Amino acid sequence: MQGRGGSNKPLACAPASALRLPLPFAGEPDCQTRMLAQTFTIVTPVFLLIGIGYCLARFGVFGPSVSAALGQFVYTVSIPALIFRTLIAADLSDGLPVSLWATYFIGIATAWALGSVIIRKGFARDARAGVIGGISAAFANTVLVGLPIVAAVYGDAGLVPLLLIVSIHLATMTIVIAVAMERAAATDRGEVSPPLAQLVTGAGKSLLTNPLIIAILLAFLWRFGGMAMPEIPLSVINRIGSTALPLALLSLGMSLVQYGMRGNILPGLLLSIVKVLIMPAVVFCLGAFVFHLPPLWTTVATLTAACPTGVNAYIFANRYGTGHAMSANTITMTTLCALATTSLWIWFLESWFA
Fold first, then answer.
1. Which of the four pLDDT bands, split at 50, 70 and 90, describes residue 228?
2. What average pLDDT does range 242-255 have in this prediction?
3. Do the Cβ atoms of 176 and 109 come closer than 8 Å?
4. 161, 97 contact by CB (below 8 A)
5. Cα separation of 319 and 315, whole Å?
6. Does position 154 have pLDDT exceeding 60, yes or no?
7. Is the pLDDT of residue 20 over 80?
8. Could you tell me the CATH number of the domain that includes residue 257?
9. Region 158-173: what's the mean pLDDT?
10. Which of 118, 152, 333, 337 is 20 to 30 Å apart from 275, CA to CA?
């Protein structure tokens, strides 16, 4: 594995495919145990930062206004700087990563369908709640959790496939969720759904002011222009981008205070199982056996799919007045167990590609 910033930080007994290191004894039980322990050691600081953020907010060291301001800075300044810096330097000579996108989005579709069926059929909820169930089971926290974990484990090389996923994930999911929720709301009211073109146009307009989308577009425009980034602006962008990952984790921890556990926990538990077990398993199988992605890309896509549920699930539940408990419980459960689940997925992936 590579440490943060791309420095070599190999796992003991790690597979050659991921680390390019010829370590021949990766299959031995004792070596597997050491690899799992070292994986846990690398991933733990990521979740400790989330815990620190939670404690700072939970015990009143920082109030809601500080949490909101930090989250706004991360979302509008530091994460966009990190995305821009990484994409302008990424090797994209192989063209559009259609196979990578297909791998990940088929996993999303599978998890969404399962989540919706569980809520609609298993708990006899309305159409809007079914959509919230699908979002909770399929919408990974690719930015606040995915970026720090992948950077900690695989360095800048791992960020490339992740940011290629992020480059269309936010836009695609925003439009799909908006259309699905509006149609579900019309179904629950017994009304005719608004025209698809109208829904897509409305959702698309909101993306034009999204800082992450703007950063992605600017990065590709800069690459298309073939210009070299001057040293001083690049240094400033690098310094801002370097604050993104720790601040994102602290911000996520502070935001978790508003969620917690509430109501009937069974729907959230079932959706959590879909999110951190079934969805990454589907993505892994597609990447490894169907689309035959490079090992690092399959690993990053799988690890991204295994990330906790994003806060978007609760935002839409709050906007449409349904599914608050199930979305909050899924966010909380998947985040609390993420230290164990992501460590196990990393260990499995490293072992598999040995």
1. confident
2. 88
3. no
4. yes
5. 6
6. yes
7. no
8. 1.20.1530
9. 90
10. 152
- How far, in Å, CA of 242 to CA of 259, rounded? 28
Short-list 274, 275, 272, 285, CA closest to 348: 285
HSE at residue 343, side-chain half, CA atoms within 13 A, is: 22
Handedness of CA 141, 147, 152, 155 (dihedral sign): positive
Instruction: Indicate whether 53 belongs to any domain.
Output: yes
Give me the domain span that covers residue 277.
Answer: 4-8+28-352
> Is the pLDDT at 221 greater than 60, yes or no?
yes
In a domain, 243, yes or no: yes
Quick one: tokens of 61? 């060291």
- Among 48-52, 99-103, 220-224, 267-271, whose mean pLDDT is lowest? 220-224
Residue (of 312, 281, 300) closest to 151 by Cα position: 300
Could you tell me which residues come within 8 angstroms of residue 298 by beta carbon, excluding any fewer than 6 positions away? Answer: 103, 284, 287, 288, 349, 353
In a domain, 16, yes or no: no
Q: What is the pLDDT of residue 28?
A: 56
Read off the tokens for 236.
């400033």
- Pick 118 or 179 by higher pLDDT: 118
Helix (H, G, I), strand (E, B), or coil: what is residue 8? strand
Q: Is the pLDDT of residue 78 over 50?
A: yes
* Count: domains in the chain: 1
Distance CA 139, CA 165 (A): 12
3-class state of residue 309 by DSSP: strand
* Rounded CA separation 217/353 (Å): 34
* Domain-embedded: residue 178: yes
